[in-house]
Design brief:
Chain B: This is Small ribosomal subunit protein uS4m. The complex is a heterodimer. By secondary structure, chain A is mainly alpha-helical. Helix content of chain A is 42%, strand content 4%. Chain B folds into 2 domains: 24-76 and 123-195 and 409-458, RNA-binding S4 domain (Structural Genomics Hypothetical 15.5 Kd Protein In mrcA-pckA Intergenic Region, Chain A); 201-313 and 348-388, no CATH class. The chains are: A mainly alpha, B mainly alpha. The interface between A and B is large, with 91 and 96 residues.
């Protein structure tokens, strides 16, 4: 097909004449327009300034690259100025967005939400200290928790993770050491030194039961001592008073002893003894449960395997034959493990 | 088939949605985030806007239906009970008098007199910030919160691809809800990919030495040589010491370069020589550590090392030629200048501007034994860093590993997790709770927006 010239108010002959008469200096011509007729040459424009003439120019790729939008420009400017300090982490400590506008507000990663703070994490040294206290010195978890003001569950988790770390070190397994170093530099840390005045975290926190969040009006005689226990009972029969919910009740005993005039060192020793005793009792009970469970199984030890055989009542399958702990396949009761709309993700891994 | 929500215009500047990622656009959007929703619209409109904004951040990859099922109107909170208070009071003091505790006379108020349960902030409990607490139980979001992935979507991918273990067993469901005490572990290599700088093909290729780090090194080396040229005549002893330090650094950089260059084509001989090099460096450092040693000696060591390294850069045949040439030089001492200037002489492969500088460093004063210790420590540290975080072109991320840009603005670990970043494992300690004055849910939104969103999900449908 021959090349077509678009219908235009600029006649082609005129264009050609213009082109021949007054060629534009090369510096003024757009680069990739050598073959195109110069519709936007001055004479054409002087003759007809209709929008159609403009349209013709836009059909060629002579237009300027699209400018950045305002948000894009602002974003670029932000990256060049304020954002520059976040590009590469320097120094030994956290650097959060809040420090841009309010340098006094510390460790708030979200400028609009002041109630969430980036709280310190245990440094690698602190983790080592906890591990040594538990595994080398043999201190009870409750005592370690009380000494360093670290939640008991966290103490247990630290020991668990450190054991894995040490095993991986022994096995020469791949670890993310440069990553760990970088992350530690970016986070606020607690070394659990004696120099730190603030406790690391509350160790005796009590869950707020939803029953206790309502307002109650309980008529009580003026002469009656209305204690925490009475208040708990007023909220509901099954509601425990906070004295029973304390994670380390031995600490309360220690404080009571100190109030009764027993010297602090003696009270602390008693506390250590009590916590050790409670830990031993817990371990024993766990052992007892495991032994009881084990006793139900009869074991047949062949050379290669140990078969553990347990008795089950195959009749106890519930009303619909689908009881949770029912064993085996039952005639006429199809499995629902592929049924739609049922939750099939495991609820626990153990 | 699982249908993923599309992520077109994920970090739009125009809409300004905040997401669970470490993206720089996201950082900007986070900074621009408005604290409240305008009260111009109806209550429904306000709730809708709040829901849209919060859901764009909280589990945007989770389908709305699924989240609605997960939502719970029971917001968990905890209060610290001080053992000293518990021991001293049984709570009856709060019900004394007319039922709300005895008044303290204005003049007699003191901290010791008033029974107080310490350990809690004097502020309201931000319950409304706990709206999206159930989502923090999800495995993929916990992986993101533990800083093992740069976005929640990436964390989800890690789970789906089988890189995450829960209690030692592979768990492929991103929607698995962690139970208190669950330990999850991510493949360290995946974490390094997710959190490390991207590898640009240009910087990693060996043929083009124009990577930024190398350029910087070259610049510093040039500066050092210029400074060294001045040194002999003008500079004082302290500046000379500084140069000495600089020289040691350069030497180390050079050693690094050699190791990098030879990594892929390591023959047995090369390996042996690298071992020898490290041995020599150790010896030099030990010598420097000795109290009696002077800098003159260490300077000689450095020269030796420099020559050793220049050998390392040559291929075996070239090295033979080089040795031959040196023998010639030794025999024709007066004509040494011409041979070294001849174009046929095999030169080291990489430009090494630090050699002449090293030679100029012979006139170093002898009163710098203390400084030497510092230098040797620096060198030692550098060598150790190199050992831990080596250059390795086979890795899918830029090596030596560095954190990705803008990571620090998003780096925080909430208290309900205990993380060990070295082994890329974490324990989900307990469900997140709100305490007086602080909430444990990392949410970028203010109380008003969270409250409106909570109200949206409260309604029965």
């Amino acid at each position: 097909m021959p090349p077509r010239i678009r219908s235009s108010n600029c006649p082609p002959q005129q264009l050609l004449l213009n082109y021949l008469d007054a060629p534009l200096p090369s510096s003024l011509l757009p680069l990739h327009r050598s073959s195109a007729p110069s519709s936007s040459s001055p004479s054409c424009r002087s003759q007809q300034t209709s929008p159609q003439c403009q349209q013709q120019t836009s059909s060629f790729s002579t237009s300027q690259p699209r400018e950045m939008t305002k948000p894009q420009r602002e974003f670029r400017a932000f990256l060049k100025r304020m954002g520059k300090q976040f590009e590469k982490h320097e120094g030994n400590g956290p650097k959060y967005l809040c420090q841009v506008h309010q340098p006094k507000v510390d460790n708030v990663p979200f400028p609009s939400n002041k109630s969430f703070k980036s709280e310190p994490v245990l440094s690698s040294r602190a983790r080592q200290t906890i591990w040594e206290a538990v595994m080398l010195k043999g201190m009870p978890l409750k005592a370690v928790s009380a000494q360093y003001q670290v939640d008991m569950r966290r103490v247990a988790a630290v020991v668990r993770l450190m054991e894995i770390e040490k095993r991986m070190e022994r096995e020469n397994a791949a670890m993310a050491i440069p990553y760990a170093q970088a992350v530690e530099k970016m986070l606020p840390r607690a070394n659990l030194d004696s120099s730190e005045e603030e406790p690391f975290e509350p160790i005796n926190d009590v869950h707020v039961h939803s029953f206790t969040m309502q307002q109650l009006f309980v008529p009580v005689s003026e002469s009656r001592e209305f204690t925490r226990k009475d208040a708990a009972k007023a909220f509901g029969d099954h509601i425990l008073p906070p004295d029973h919910k304390m994670r380390i009740p031995e600490l309360v005993d220690m404080e009571k002893a100190i109030l009764n005039g027993i010297p602090q060192e003696k009270a602390e020793q008693e506390f250590l003894k009590q916590t050790r005793e409670s830990e031993r009792r817990f371990a024993e009970s766990q052992k007892y449960v495991a032994a009881k469970k084990d006793a139900k199984k009869s074991k047949v030890d062949t050379e290669r395997f140990e078969f553990r055989i347990e008795n089950f009542n195959s009749e106890a399958v519930g009303k619909k034959g689908r009881a949770r702990n029912a064993v085996g396949w039952r005639y006429g009761v199809p499995f629902n493990d592929r049924q739609r709309g049922l939750y099939k993700i495991p609820t626990s891994v153990g | 088939m699982r249908c993923e929500r599309r992520i077109l215009r994920y970090h739009s500047l125009k809409r300004g949605r905040v997401r669970q990622t470490w993206n720089k656009y996201n950082m900007y959007n986070l900074l621009r985030l408005r604290n409240s929703i305008s009260s111009m619209g109806t209550f429904f409109q306000q709730k809708w806007a709040a829901k849209a904004a919060t859901r764009a951040y909280h589990g945007e990859h989770i389908k709305e239906k699924q989240w609605e099922r997960m939502f719970s109107r029971r917001l968990l909170s905890a209060v610290n009970m001080d053992p000293a208070y518990m021991a001293k009071y049984d709570g009856s003091e709060q019900a004394a008098g007319r039922g709300s505790g005895r008044d303290v006379k204005p003049g007699k108020w003191s901290k010791a007199q008033v029974a107080r349960n310490t350990g809690n902030a004097e502020a309201l409990t931000p319950y409304m910030q706990m709206t999206f607490a159930p989502q923090e139980r999800r495995l993929d979001i916990a992986v993101y919160r533990a800083l093992f992935a740069s976005s929640a979507r990436q964390a989800r991918q890690f789970v789906v691809h089988g890189a995450v273990k829960v209690n030692g067993k592979k768990m492929q469901h991103p929607g698995y809800l962690l139970n208190p005490g669950d330990l999850f572990q991510v493949d360290p290599e995946k974490v390094m990919i997710a959190t490390g700088r991207k590898k640009s093909s240009k910087s990693e290729s060996l043929s083009t030495p124009k990577q930024p780090a190398a350029e910087e090194e070259a610049e510093t080396a040039e500066e050092a040589t210029e400074a060294a040229e001045q040194s002999v005549e003008e500079l004082g002893p302290e500046q000379l010491q500084a140069q000495h330090l600089e020289g040691l650094k350069l030497l180390h950089q050079h050693a690094k370069k050699i190791i990098e260059a030879n990594k892929e084509k390591l023959s047995g001989g090369h390996k042996k020589e690298i071992r020898e090099l490290s041995q020599k460096i150790k010896e030099a450092m030990n010598r420097a550590r000795k109290a009696g040693s002077d800098v003159q000696e260490t300077g000689d060591d450095m020269q030796n090392l420099a020559t050793l390294m220049s050998h390392l850069e040559l291929t075996p045949t070239e090295r033979k030629e080089f040795q031959k040439q040196q023998e010639q030089q030794a025999s024709e001492a007066p004509a040494a200048e011409t041979t070294s200037a001849s174009p046929s002489a095999p030169t080291p492969l990489s430009p090494s501007p630090d050699y002449p500088q090293l030679k100029t460093r012979t006139p170093v004063p002898k009163t710098s034994t203390k400084f030497d210790k510092i230098e040797s420590q620096i060198l030692k540290r550098l060598l150790e860093e190199e050992k831990i975080n080596p250059y390795d072109p086979s890795k899918p991320y830029a090596t030596p590993w560095r954190p990705r840009p803008y990571m620090s603005a998003f780096a925080f670990i909430p208290r309900y997790l205990e993380v060990n970043p070295k082994i890329c494992a974490a324990v989900y300690l307990r469900h997140p709770v709100a305490r007086p004055g602080k909430s444990e849910i990392p949410t970028p939104f203010g109380t008003q927006i969270s409250q409106l969103a909570f109200n949206w999900y409260l309604r029965r449908r």
